[in-house]
Amino acid sequence: MDNKAIAKVFDEVADILDIKGGNVFRINAYRKAALNILNSPRDLRDIVDKAPNDLPKIPGIGQSLKEMIVQLVQTGHCKEHDKLKKSIPAGLLEMLHIRSLGPKKVKMLHGKLGVKSVKELKKAAKEGRIRDLEGMGARSEKVILKAIEEYSKFSSDRTLISEAKMEAMRIIEYMKGCKEVAKIEYAGSLRRGKETIGDIDILITVKDSEKSHGVVMEHFTTYDDVLNVIASGDTKSTIMLISGMHVDLRVIDDHSFGAAMHYFTGNKQHNIKLRDIAKRKGLKVSEYGVFKGKKLIACKSEKDVFKAVGFPYIIPEIRRNEGEIEYA
After folding, report:
1. Of 49, 92, 167, 221, which is least packed with CB atoms within 10 Å of its CB?
2. Torsion of CA 148, 31, 36, 78, to 10 degrees
């Protein structure tokens, strides 16, 4: 986590404390620290790695903030931030992205009207329930509705790859703590290295029989950063993290892990193109392998899958149907 990301965390901590009506001096301390970190000519990752005791030399960084920085650099998150995020509805932080709304107005809207998301804010404004609040009026509702329209137009449900990768690696390390897990890898757009990620796809194999599936899924759905379990099954579960990201976990048979990695890595157009070529050769490509009739001829590794269809291995980063198959 670089200086910009750490400063963002500190700003978010200040926002949450402000929404909760926290101590003004503590709130200002986090905001000042965030600004100083953002303007620091030194990379905090280097300081943590080589001389962590130098962190307090940065104005506004005391012992407690030093410990938070070390946690953020080393693990990508910190206990204080995680604890605070869980203490308020996740949608309140999203509301801060709406122009004209700061922590104090968000606190008032939540406290007086029970609004806890942008969707509920829009509904309250349309119903004329905001105008009667202190410091608000009919014009305020129009401004808020216009700002929501702007936000909806320009916001994205996608996450920067750096943030998504940290989330994925934390989950993978957590899942490795389950003794039933054998192999585990991330796939999808994250493995392709896209600049922004919609959701995280993780594939695993288990050490024992199908009885292990339930143990693995229970471990996955009870991950600390889970905000909501969207779906839970024996071979696939989906969770929404506190960050808002969705994560799909699939249990794959060990013998077809390579075929599944190929299937869940390439984008839709890449996979369609390869399947069409395979079909013309009398083959069928799926997440379970390459088949000739009912006979399975390749599935163990991605290289085997490509080779069976007549191509050399194509690296994940270019599996986008932008000529990579034709040039292979």
Report:
1. 49
2. -90
**At a CB cut-off of 8 Å and minimum separation 6, what does 7 contact?**
34, 35, 37, 38
CA distance 236 to 225: 18
Output phi, psi for 200, to 5 deg: -105, 130
- Could you say which residues of the chain have pLDDT below 50? none
Q: Which residues are CB-contacts of 261 (< 8 A; sequence separation ≥ 6)?
A: 185, 187, 203, 302
Hunting for tokens 């292990």 — which residue is that? 212
Beta strand 236-241 with 226-232 is antiparallel
The three-state secondary structure class of 8 is: helix
Q: State how far the Cα of 253 lies from the Cα of 267, in Å rounded to an integer.
A: 22
Report pLDDT for 328. Answer: 65
**3-state DSSP call for residue 95?**
helix
**Maximum Cα–Cα distance across the chain:** 72
Q: Which amino acid, residue 109?
A: L
Q: Which domains does the chain have, with CATH numbers?
A: 3-86 (1.10.150.110), 90-154 (1.10.150.20), 159-251 (3.30.460.10), 256-327 (3.30.210.10)
Task: Give the residues across from 263 on adjacent strands.
Answer: none
Q: What's the order of all strands across the beta sheet hosting 289-292?
A: 284-286, 289-292, 295-298
- How many whole angstroms separate alpha carbon 274 and alpha carbon 306? 9
Question: Of 106, 111, 108, 146, which is closest to residue 126 (Cα–Cα)?
Answer: 146
Partners of 286 in the β-ladder = 289
Three-state DSSP at 320 gives coil
This prediction has a pTM of 0.55
